[in-house]
């Protein structure tokens, strides 16, 4: 494919992180770490004789030491937390559940959500800001709390402002299933609305909020919630390089790798990082062209979960809930990876589901990547599969009768 060279480059991953096969290095290190409950981990000289406090004049050093020791000595809390994340099972679903979930799909509602995104979305332009505002107000309407990750960065065209939208349902919930896309569009010499890249993926995220928002408070596992990321600055301003691409993803992954978050197993806690709250990072990109194929990537740590997507598609087709276009999700993995917004998260050990059409759509980075060339049958099916996956990951039920959330 001519498009392979520029964008679809191979990415050398580190050690394999396949679920249940090889544990991430970070996890293995946890097994060797000491316990914060063990006195051997406590800083010497911190405590005086029993019942006797040392004066405040001593210094902040002991407190700093405690903080560092908590960070350096993983406990059962984080190990248990990590185990719960990696061994999480999708909930079972009856045929009736699947039919009811499928009935939430609505082609007209989807087009309505998509329409405002089908404009040029070049960073630091009026229409780009308008799309960002539209995404924010829409997800808020469906019950999500929002915040911007706003920053400036150096680009080949000088300093530019970026802002990625973080939309979280019930933000105090500790663990997150993340769905992500990018909402900026590439600069071409001709008008380019980048329908598959990634207006449609953004609309799929909005549609997930529309369809599942009313049921999210009913999830059986109250420790996990849904977070939607609309990342900015995925596209290179000129040529794709490490510095000129994925501006928003790089900034957010860096920020979350430094922000503290206390993980707990109920009886103990440990200071870990905001990034540790992510169970799985599902990135949607290049979706909307006819006959896509999605495969898992070896080394992303989610082979088994990705196979569930293929199983869900087969199950929905078996009960007549899909449009008559070929299956999109394959159970066979890819042995190469594609550079995209997931890279800064993958490098920090976050399990990744990269739902990207490979080979890329024919219209990739061409002015013809517009609404007229979208395949709404295929989009309907992908939307349905992702909706069921999210519902099962979060353990949602009773789709026929959303109850009122008084919380
Ligand atoms: Zn692109």
UniProtKB/TrEMBL annotation:
Belongs to the glutaminyl-peptide cyclotransferase family. Its main location: secreted. It is found in: Secreted. The keyword Secreted applies. The chain crosses the membrane at residues 60-81. InterPro entries: M28_QC, Peptidase_M28, QC/QCL. Its EC number is 2.3.2.5. It comes from the Eukaryota. Residues 166-389 form the Peptidase M28 domain. Residues 1-25 are annotated as: Disordered. This is Glutaminyl-peptide cyclotransferase. It catalyses: N-terminal L-glutaminyl-[peptide] = N-terminal 5-oxo-L-prolyl-[peptide] + NH4(+). Gene3D superfamilies: Zn peptidases. One of its GO terms (molecular function) is zinc ion binding. GO terms for cellular component: extracellular region. It comes from Panagrellus redivivus (Microworm). Residues 1-17 have a biased composition (Polar residues). Keywords: Acyltransferase, Disulfide bond, Membrane, Metal-binding, Secreted, Transferase, Transmembrane, Transmembrane helix, Zinc.
């Amino acid at each position: 494919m001519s498009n392979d060279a520029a964008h679809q480059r191979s990415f050398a991953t580190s050690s394999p992180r396949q679920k249940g096969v090889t544990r991430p290095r970070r996890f293995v290190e946890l097994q060797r770490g000491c316990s914060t409950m063990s006195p051997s981990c406590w800083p010497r000289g911190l405590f005086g004789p029993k019942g006797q406090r040392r004066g405040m004049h001593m210094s902040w050093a002991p407190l700093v030491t405690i903080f560092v020791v908590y960070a350096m000595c993983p406990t059962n809390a984080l190990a248990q937390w990590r185990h719960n994340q990696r061994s999480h099972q999708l909930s079972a679903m009856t045929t009736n559940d699947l039919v009811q979930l499928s009935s939430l799909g609505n082609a007209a509602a989807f087009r309505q959500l998509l329409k405002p995104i089908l404009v040029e979305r070049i960073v630091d332009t009026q229409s780009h800001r308008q799309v960002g505002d539209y995404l924010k107000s829409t997800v808020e309407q469906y019950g999500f709390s929002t915040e911007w990750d706003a920053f400036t960065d150096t680009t080949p065209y000088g300093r530019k402002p970026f802002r990625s939208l973080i939309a979280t349902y019930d933000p105090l919930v500790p663990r997150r299933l993340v769905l992500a896309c990018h909402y900026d569009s590439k600069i071409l010499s001709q008008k380019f609305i980048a329908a598959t890249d990634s207006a449609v993926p953004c609309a799929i995220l909005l549609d997930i909020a529309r369809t599942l928002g009313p049921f999210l408070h009913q999830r059986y596992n109250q420790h996990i919630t849904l977070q939607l990321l609309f990342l900015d600055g995925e596209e290179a301003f000129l040529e794709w390089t490490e510095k000129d691409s994925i501006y928003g993803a790089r900034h957010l992954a860096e920020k979350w790798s430094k922000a503290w978050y206390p993980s707990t197993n109920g009886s103990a806690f440990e200071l870990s990082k905001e990034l540790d709250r992510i169970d799985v990072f599902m990135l949607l990109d290049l979706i909307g062209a006819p006959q896509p194929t999605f495969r898992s990537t070896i080394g992303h740590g989610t082979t088994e979960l990705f196979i569930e997507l293929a199983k869900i598609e087969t199950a929905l087709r078996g009960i007549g809930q899909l449009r008559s276009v070929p299956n999109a999700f394959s159970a066979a993995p890819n042995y190469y990876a594609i550079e995209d917004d997931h890279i800064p998260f993958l490098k920090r050990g976050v399990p990744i589901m990269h739902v990207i059409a490979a080979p890329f759509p024919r219209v990739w980075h061409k002015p013809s990547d517009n609404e007229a060339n979208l395949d709404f049958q295929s989009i309907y099916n992908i939307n349905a599969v992702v909706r069921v996956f999210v519902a099962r990951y979060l353990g949602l039920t009773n789709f026929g009768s959303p109850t009122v959330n008084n919380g």
